[in-house]
Structure formats: C-alpha cells, structure tokens
Amino acid sequence: LRKRYLDLIANPETRDLFVKKAKFWTSVRQYLLENGFLEVETPALELIPGGADATPFTTHHNAQDTDYYLRISLELFQKRLLVGGFEKTFEIGRQFRNEGIDMEHLQDYTQMEFYWAYANYEDGMKLVEEMYKKIAKEVFETLKFETNGYKIDLGKKWEKYDFEQTIKKFTGIDIYKADKKEIMKKLKEFKMDFDPDVDKWRLVDLLWKYCRKKISGPGFLTGQPIELSPLAKRNSEDKRKVEQFQVIIAGTEIGNGYSELNDALDQEQRFQEQMKLKEKGDKESMEHDKSFVEALKYGMPPTCGFGVSERLFSYLMDKPIRECVIFPLMKPEE
Known about the structure:
This protein has 334 residues and is of the alpha+beta class.
C-alpha cells in the first residue's frame, strides 16, 4: 500500500482491480445520466458540516482568516439546488469523516449522492435496486457474489426489513418501550462497546448494528426512528418513524436514502434537538445550519435523496475498503 506503484508492476490483479473500479464509477454515472440526472459539483469546504452524523475534519482558510470544515456529505448544497429549480442532480466526489478505520470505513473516500424532485423513498428503492443490478452486470458480469462470509444474489427478490420488528426479533427489545438501562444491559450481553453518556437512540442504533450482521440481503431497511434521521421526512402513517431506506447487503449498510424533509419549521426544530445532544457531548450530532433552513423556507419540492460510497465496490470485490483505494492514507513510517 505504501509503494503502490511496485504493487501495480508486480501484480496484474491489482491493476485489474482499479480498472474495474474506474468502470464502476463510469457505470454509476452513465446510469444516472441516462435517467435524466444532471451531474453537479458542490463545495468541499463548508462553514457548517451537514448531511450526516459524523465528526468532521477542520482546516483554516488563510485568505479569509476563517475556519472551515471538510464536507461529511454531498447533501445540503444539492438540496439548495432543488430550491433553485434543478429537479434531478447527482455528484460523485470526495468526502471526509474523522472516524475510525476498519474493513468498511475510511476517513476520505468517494461518494455518490443523487436528489430527485417529486419522488419519494419508494421510488428511490425501485431506482436503486435497478442501478445496483446494472452496475454489477456491467462491471462484474454477474449478480452472484461471495463476500465477507455471505453469499449474495442481487438477482433474487429484495426483501424489506422493518427497523423496530427486526430488533425485536433478534434481541427481544421493544425500542419504543425499553428504557436506556434495558438497552445497555442487552448491549453488555452482546459484548458490544458503547458510551453510556449518549442518548437512548444512539444505543438503539448499536442494537440495530448487531442485528444487521444476521442479514445477508439483498434488501432494504425501513421504518427508522425519527431520532436517528434528522433530515428525513416523517412517515405519514407513524409519526415516530421516517420514510427512509438503507440497502442491506452482506450484513452491512451499503447505501442510504429517504424522502427528504422539506418542512422548514420541522427541520429547524430537529436541528435544535441535535444541538441539545451536542451540548451533552454527542460529537456526531448535526449542527444547526440556519442558512439551509432559510433556503427551505423559500420552498423545496418533495424529494428522494440517496447516497452510496465506494464501500459497495469493495464489498462486491470481497476486499477491505482500504485495499480498494489506489493510494490510501498511511501513517508516516518511523
């Protein structure tokens, strides 16, 4: 990894991997262009990091003498474009999250996000399933994969997994009735590390991550609690939940989308709730982006948004994500 140029000389399979990766992003781009999306570029430096629950990197702009954040998502500027009248956009770009490294996480990586006006999360699920199948066929010439110990067939019927019911099935916990102590007790049973100072819903999310490992997919997780999705629209049939979907393949999340929240007052209230969590020490809670709320007040159409990173490629290759980055960030040699 430190001398990738020698790896490329010595190992033809490494060269083939990165040829495949180029085809992967070309396939994503071509599919969206063929479906009427416009490719855009949005800023990588932001005054307020938004669009995800993640810890940002910070930097200083010398000419403006201002501190900025490296973006953690491609979301909020594309939503401003929706306000401005662009109805179908996408971006493929780098984003940065100051988080841990493991088989499926890196600090800087490539992400695609699209935003589709006058569509909802159900429309998004149909398009995403079709897109994943098309990418797999074009890049890998198959819909069947063995990855991370799971056997996957993207060609079979994609299931739907309800967040509340799935957790109850695998843990016995009713997430709306259980208190924080019950959830912590269950996490201890599963020998999962957790921060006891975070709020109940962060712990519920850890319960879900335990359950997720038991699902091979392909399918969609739906019915997430509103507390875990500050930017998603409320479900009209159950106000405790949001209209969200996550692609579940090989025991992990490989893609996330939802009907976007376009109610400015609701959005402002949720940002305020996130700030309360941040004051209590939750580093991943979202900032209150007042300029984004102002844009929503001018009117954003009902929209489906979706994002997928290069994690999808690494899983289809059955390799750790760092091995699928041509020049991964490495600690200095001592």
